[in-house]
Design a protein that fits this description.
The chain is of the alpha+beta class. Helices cover 48% and strands 15% of the residues. It contains eight helices and five strands; from the N terminus they run ααβαβααβααβαβ. Strands 1, 2, 3, 4 and 5 form a five-stranded antiparallel sheet that branches. It is globular, with a radius of gyration of 19 Å.
């Protein structure tokens, strides 16, 4: 029996991946403290792979008033571009799905680090920005999954570049940091619905 168990492929990580969903019904009833969440996310991002170990991703943790300010900025900027008759729906969405959460992670790419790599490795210069995007994706996925393991819901939003300048001004963000996404998170007040999948034959190909 022990030999058979040893031969079976492990699926613990796969099951954790299945817990990671876009959660839009967020609340503030989160058990870990802000410090515990900050430490956990910091460690996860540090362990997320990046090309050349370039570590181009930067994170700003927004809690409390800062969290509210992020979504107030989103609303302020949306109000400038969304038709007046549609703005009430936008406000309801922001308030109920994002601002209602416990906090927000702001994801940036340090473009000065990307430039440094481009100059230092000219043979690969055209690839470093793409690789920096991969690092954002790798670290987002890892953090998202780790939050889910701790019964914390999250989603990824992309109000950049609409909010870029206002976010930089509000939180004194370095000019070299380029905003890539926003991850509101909090207690899971309602589960996500069923997830649809494309047919495997349309996505995967085995060659030998």
């Amino acid at each position: 029996m022990k030999i058979l168990e040893a031969l079976l492929m492990k699926d613990t990580f796969l099951n954790l991946m299945k817990q990671r969903r876009s959660i839009y019904a967020l609340g503030k009833d989160v058990r870990p403290t802000e410090d515990e969440i900050t430490k956990l996310v910091t460690e996860v991002v540090k362990e997320s792979p990046s090309a050349f170990n370039s570590q181009t991703t930067r994170i700003v943790f927004a809690y409390g008033d800062a969290h509210d300010r992020v979504w107030d900025i989103v609303l302020d900027e949306l109000k400038k571009v969304v038709p007046e008759e549609a703005f009430a729906n936008s406000k309801q969405k922001i308030d109920s799905q994002f601002k209602a959460g416990f906090g927000t992670l702001l994801w940036f790419t340090d473009m000065s680090k990307v430039k440094e790599l481009e100059d230092g490795f000219p043979l690969y210069a055209d690839n470093f920005y793409d690789w920096s995007e991969q690092h954002v994706g790798n670290s987002q996925f890892a953090v998202w999954t780790e939050l889910a393991e701790n019964q914390i819901g999250a989603s990824v939003q992309h109000y950049n570049p609409l909010i870029d300048n206002a976010i930089k001004d509000a939180f004194k963000i370095p000019d070299e940091w380029r905003l890539r996404s926003q991850m509101p998170f909090g207690s899971i007040e309602a589960l996500a619905g069923d997830k649809d999948y494309m047919a495997d034959e349309d996505r995967f190909k085995v060659v030998k």
